[in-house]
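for the writeup, i need someone to sanity check this before i put it in the appendix. the sequnce is what the collaborator sent (i think, or maybe the updated version? ugh). structure was predicted straight from it, no edits. if anything looks off just tell me and ill rerun, i have time this weekend
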Amino acid sequence: MNPTAAGEWLLVHNPRSRRGTRVASEVRGLLEGMLPTGAPRPRWTTLEGLPEADVAPRRVVSLGGDGTVNAVLNWLWRNNLEIPLAIVPAGTGNNL
């Protein structure tokens, strides 16, 4: 994990979730429309790509259900990252 090359935002979604993929696509479209020209774009990854993220973000957004949130929290813990986590509920139960 390279904290000196930190990115601003990391958005994580579960590509195996139809609803999560749809919500991720909608969020991506909204962000692209809101961010000013030349502003840094958030980095996107899937649950499968999360362990390979080698640049520490300053904030994480989890788009998915309980399993996605659990995986993101475990990744943050394993990498000793004490950063804000936003949750966009896009799962079936959203029991958190």
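DSSP finds two helices and four strands in the chain. The mean pLDDT is 81.
thx in advance!!
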